[in-house]
Amino acid sequence: MAHQLSKTNYQLQSLASGKIFTDEGWMLDAPGEDKPGLIRAVYEKKQLNPKDDSFGIYKFSDWLPVMDFLEGSYAPLTYKSEGLANHLGLKNLYITFSGYWPEKGISMRTCSFKETEAYSVCGRLRPEHDQVLVVASAGNTARAFARVCSDNNIPLLLCVPEDNLNALWFDEPIKNNVKLVASRAGGDYFDAIHLSNLAAKLDKFVPEGGAKNVARRDGMGTTVLSAATHIGSIPDYYFQAVGSGTGAIAAWEANLRLLEDGRFGTRKMKLMVSQNEPFVPMYDAWKVRSRELPVIDDNLARDYVSRIVAKVLSNRKPPYAITGGLFDALSDAGGEIMTATNEQAHHAAKLFEEFEGNDIHPAAAIATATLIDAVKKKMVAKDAVIMLNITGGGEEKFKREKALHYLKPDIIFDIDPDFEEVKEKLTRLF
C-alpha cells in the first residue's frame, strides 16, 4: 500500500555540549564543536502514536528523522515467547524479531534488522540529494542498503571485506546504481571502513556515517518501540549481541524517549549486550569500567575476527568511548557486557529453532546464548520482563524458498590502498 508521509519535525542536539540546532541536511556532527560526541534527534512529538502495520517501519515515523517514505519496509515484530520461555523457566520473555517469517507477518527480504537502518537512513535523504552514499559493512548492512537503494534508485557505493562477499545474496538482481568494492582477502571490517573513508573524501561521495547518523540509530531503535508498544511498558532487560554497540545505544535512546512519553513506565531497561569470543574488546574494557578500549595489534585482531562465527560483530573501532556512546549508555542504564563462544551460539541457535520455529543469524544466536547463560547464573529473575532482540533470522528458510543472485565486486583493492588509485578507479565507476 502506498502512503504519503509528511516529513518528521525534529531538531538535533549535541550530546557533548547540549546545544540544540537545526538539521541543515546530512549532518553527522555538531557544527563548530571540538569535543567528539554523538548528536541526537529531538522530536517535536513527545508522545509516540504508531500508525498501522501497512506503513512498515514508518509506523514509528513520529520518532524517525525522515523526509520521505520508501516502499517495501517492515517494522520489527514482537511476540511473547512460549517455547523458549518455558524451556528457560521465564514468565515474561518477549522476542523482537527482524527477518523473514511470513507466517508471523514479517518478510524482510534481507533477513536482518539492518533494514531498519537502511529504510530510515535513505528516508532521511533530501529530494535534491545527488551524491553517492558510501556504506562500509561486514555483510548484513551492505545487503540491506543494496536492496533499499536498488529498489529506490539511490546511488550507493558499498565497501565490504572480500572474505564477507558471500553475505551479498538477493532474491532479485541489484540495479546498476549500486556499486560494490572490496578490501582484499585477509582484511576485515576495519579495512572496509578505511576504504570507505578514502572514498568519502571524494567530492561526489558522502559517508552514511554509521553510529553518527541519527537516522541509523533511530531506525534500530524501532526494535524497542515495537517491544514497548506490544508489551505496554518498557522491558526490565534488553538482550542483544553488539559489534559496534550502535543498536544498544539506539535502544537506550528509545528508552529515554519512552520515559519522556510517560505512558510506558519509569524504568531504564538494563542493557545486556554480548560479544563473540575471542573478539571481545568492549567486554574487556567494560569489565574494568574503562572508557578506553584496550589497544590490540592489527594482526591479532584480524586473527580473532577470523575465528568468530558472528562476523558482523567485528568492529575494531566501535562508538564505545565517544560521548553518548556505549560506555555512557551502560553507565546510565545499567547492565553488562557478556560473551559467548561459537559453540554456545550454535547450541542457542538449535534451541531457538526447536522451541520457536525459525532459524536465526549467528549474532542473534550469541545474544540468545547469553540470555541462557544469564538465566543459569541467576542474573535475571524468572518473572522479569525480558526483551530478546533477534537481529536477524529466517535466512535459511528464505534461501530454501528463493532463487538467489549474488552481487559481485566491481573492484578489489589492497588492504591499505593508495588514495590516488582509489580516487581514479571510483571516479570512473560512477
Separation, N- and C-terminal Cα atoms: 33 Å
Biggest sheet statistics? 6 strands, mixed
**CATH topology category name of the domain at 77-110 and 215-398:** Rossmann fold
Task: State the assembly state of the protein chains.
Answer: single chain
Description of the structure:
The chain has 430 residues and is α/β, with parallel strands linked by helices. The protein has a domain at 77-110 and 215-398: 3-Layer(aba) Sandwich (Rossmann fold), CATH 3.40.50. The chain has 14 helices and 18 strands. A six-stranded mixed β-sheet has the order 4-5-16-13-14-15, sandwiched between helices. A five-stranded parallel β-sheet has the order 12-8-9-11-18, with helices on both faces. A three-stranded antiparallel β-sheet has the order 2-1-3. A hairpin with a 4-residue loop joins strand 6 (100-101) and strand 7. Helix 5 (214-220) crosses helix 7.
In short:
The chain is α/β, with parallel strands linked by helices and 430 residues long.
Task: List the SSEs and their pairings.
Layout: E1 10-14, E2 20-21, E3 39-43, E4 77-80, H1 83-88, E5 92-97, E6 100-101, E7 106-107, H2 114-124, E8 132-136, H3 140-151, E9 156-161, E10 169-170, E11 178-183, H4 189-200, E12 205-207, H5 214-220, H6 222-231, E13 237-241, H7 246-261, E14 270-276, H8 281-287, H9 298-306, H10 326-333, E15 335-340, H11 342-356, H12 362-376, E16 385-390, H13 395-401, E17 405-406, E18 411-413, H14 419-429
